[in-house]
Amino acid sequence: MRVAILGTGYVGLTTGVCLAYLGHSVVCVDPVVEKIDSLRHGSIPIFEPGLEELLREASQRMGFTTNPAEAIPEAEVVVICVGTPVQADGTPDLSQLRSASESLGRHMGLHFTVVVNKSTVPIGSSNWVEALVCAAFEESHDEKAEARFAVASNPEFLREGSAVADSLYPDRIVLGTEDLRALEILCALYRPLIDQDFPAPAFCPRPPGVTAIPFVSTDLPSAELIKYAANAFLALKISFINEIGLLAQRVGADVGEIARGIGLDSRIGRQFLQAGLGWGGSCFAKDTSTLITTAAEYGLSLPIVGAAREVNQRLRARVLERLLDELKILKGKRIGLLGLAFKPNTDDLRDAPAIDIAKRLSLHGALVVAHDPVAMPRFQREQAGLPVALLDSPEGVFQRADAVVLVTEWQTYLDLTWEALQPVMRNPLLVDGRNVLDKQRLVAAGYRHVGIP
Ligand code: UGA
Asked: From the CB of 342, is ligand 1 less than 6 Å away?
């Protein structure tokens, strides 16, 4: 099948490469010339494990262009994957969605085209996309757009850092459309995924037990709301365990043990109960905020979602509170941060707790040093004004430090020889922002270990 993808961020690029790997003919469109140039040379402009390897395997069926006219007219399916960043008032900026829809309408061929919306958009946006495509088509073709295209919502559930595995072996595929023809075409598009009959790439093997992927076919607004409900639920699961973690800390209980104890109940489940600094990234904050503003438009408040956000916000101050408790004065103290990215295996710094922590520490006069295995170049570009000294090695972070904070649980940090690093610190205080380190081992090595929350 011929597919055009509009937007080459995490979602667009991963979707395009995976569809090409599954045998479809894919052209990705993005207005940023440097991005397209680098993709044409086989180089991925983001850090996403496995994506470059997959692109190499699928490259014969992939094209990249800045010109929508080279991709849209031939496509049977056009997937919109443009960004919808949150604005200061909590609502998403839909300008990229508008221009993608208009461009789609202008360039759409005369055959039946399925317009798939994968961008996370407020409920009802698919109807808006439909109206924009329709108007642009009729203006440029001088023909009725009726029955020439149908819009479907196909929310994405991939996580950064494991985007390839999440796309090839998803927990489910959700499709919202009221058009039977579109549904048939999209079923055919996803057939290899649904049946799991494609050869798994050597570097991303099929997990044991994955034989077929559940397919949820529903109406447009339900598909759109499924995306928000999923992210909001995951966000509140994390905030819930962190709220319990705050109480656990007061009463001397271990939040890790609590997560294990409740997570083994299959009704609760073990995932997304890792207590610590809370959630960051481009999705949870944006989507919970949009959900709340959307509900408000319909005269509803969502107190549970609001509380999840509030708890997460409180956690941002927690590292500072813990350091003040321990060190009393931060002025002139050297504080080391291990990790800058919002989670491991990505260089994404959007809403990363590390940025918040560094700002708060600097305001208190601390000298902040940091390391990240992949996010430092991006940090230098995006956070140039922040007084953080970036170091070449994680070991350097411990040198003469008054405290070290584990912010992002990169494997390379978990594998450090912690015993050898304690003596080089001025004060062996370790704040485990993700509750992933072996407390007993660290205490035996002479550290003072403090967990978050
Ligand atoms: C999230 C969802 O998990 C995806 O299903 C969804 O497709 C994506 O948003 C999106 O809407 O595009 P992502 O933000 O990439 O994915 O990463 P997650 O693995 O969900 O982590 C989000 C944040 O929660 C990270 O800061 C992580 O450190 C934190 N987290 C996660 C915890 O603090 N505890 C946990 O137990 C799990």
From this structure: yes
